[in-house]
Amino acid sequence: MSVNVLENTFSPLSNDLTFKYVFSHENILKSFLNLFLDYIDSTVTCEIVDITPESYIIPNNKKIKSYFGDIVATLSNGDIISIEMYSNKFSENEYNKSFAYTSRLFSNQIEKNKINYEEMHKVISLNLIPTNYKRVNKEIINSYRIKNDILNISIDNNILIYLLRFDLTNKMSYNLNEHEFITILRLLNCKSLEEMEKYQKGGKSIVDEVIEYVKEWNLESSKNGLERYIEEKQQETAEEVRKKVSEEVRKETRVETIEERNFDIAKNLLNKKMKIQDIMDVTGLTKKQVLSLK
Fold first, then answer.
1. N or C: at which end does the chain have fewer Cβ atoms within 10 angstroms?
2. What is the CA radius of gyration of the chain?
3. pLDDT at position 251, please?
4. What is the side-by-side order of every strand in the sheet holding 123-129?
5. Could you tell me which residues are beta bridge partners of residue 165?
6. By C-alpha distance, which of 46, 185, 72 is closest to 125?
7. pLDDT-flagged residues of the chain (< 50)
8. Residue 246 CB: number of other CB atoms within 10 A?
9. What pLDDT, on the 0 to 100 scale, is given for residue 174?
10. Cα–Cα dist 180/234, whole Å
11. In terms of DSSP bridges, do strands 67-75 and 80-85 run parallel, antiparallel, or are they unpaired?
12. Could you tell me whether strands 123-129 and 141-148 are parallel, antiparallel, or unpaired per DSSP bridges?
């Protein structure tokens, strides 16, 4: 992959759209996630079955706010991983946003009228951040999960939130043999292609591939191509949402029609001096609703 970058148009890896472009490639995302798992000494490895850049997180209730996640991937075991890029700051507002994304992805696994909580899959949120959140995240990897405060032990691993501080790599001495997970975090700090090229290994490493994709993205044709792709995905999801909303409106209209009919029946039965309890049994209305018709 040989690409010439246009002058004065360099968009760093930490740029929101550049990040989505690079990490929406399965080989990059899969390698990055496995490097992360290896770095935290996890015995798990990931096989990706689906990647969605600019993922539309659809709420089950049309009155609840919808979200767009940077990248959402589904693994072969059904677990879901959400990755968010925060290039400027990460305050309490951003943390709450991340928690809302993660919770929504977890709850959206429940299909209406098909609730089976035992079959729900884990949701992991990886947040790449450039700051020390609340001044207590002093490590490169900081994890959050539900725990027992008294015993100080984790009691649930279904929702995991990681804050990955890529800014800390600027304070670390570079080592050619360092873990590639750390080197990729270094790339997020680079403000120019020259800075990134210092970390090239001259082969087909994940680091070299990331740099090449960043170069590719900086070509205007590639940039426009991804923007069109994202726009098309948004249009597709918007159409899906419209269909869902139309279905909900149809159902609500039907419910209202049934309720109106029940009120008419209740009114007629009241005129015939039927007992309140019997009317409630026939129509399903509450006592208060029936009495309101007198």
1. C
2. 26
3. 55
4. 48-57, 67-75, 80-85, 123-129, 153-165, 141-148
5. 129
6. 72
7. 1-7, 59-65, 221, 255
8. 10
9. 93
10. 33
11. antiparallel
12. unpaired
DSSP secondary structure letters along the chain: ---PPPTT----TTSHHHHHHHHTSHHHHHHHHHHHHHHTT-S----EEEEEEEEEE--SSTTSPPEEEEEEEEETTS-EEEEEE-SS---HHHHHHHHHHHHHHHHTTSBTTB--GGGPPPEEEEEEESS-GGGT--SSEEEEEEEETTTTEEEEEEEEEEEEEGGGGGGS---TTS-HHHHHHHHTT--SHHHHHTT--SSS-HHHHHHHHHHHHTSHHHHHHHHHHHHHHHHHHHHHHHHHHHHHHHHHHHHHHHHHHHHHHHHHHHHTT--HHHHHHHH---HHHHHTT-
Cα dihedral 186→191→194→196 (10° resolution) = 20
CA 221, CA 271: separation in Å to the nearest integer? 75
State CA 44 to chain mean position distance: 21
Can you tell me the distance from the alpha carbon of 270 to that of 205, in angstroms, rounded to the nearest whole number? 80
Q: List the structure tokens of 27.
A: 């080989």
Residue type, 136: V
pLDDT at res. 7: 46
Question: At what angle are helices 276-283 and 220-271 packed, to 10 degrees?
Answer: 150
Which residue, chain included where needed, has tokens 């959140």? 133
CB-CB contact of 46 with 115 (8 Å): no
Length of the chain: 294
Name, in order, each residue with C-beta under 8 angstroms of 19's C-beta and a sequence gap of 6 or more.
13, 70, 85, 128
Q: Output the six-digit token pair for 256.
A: 């209202």
What count of other Cβ atoms lies within 10 Å of the Cβ of residue 162? Answer: 20
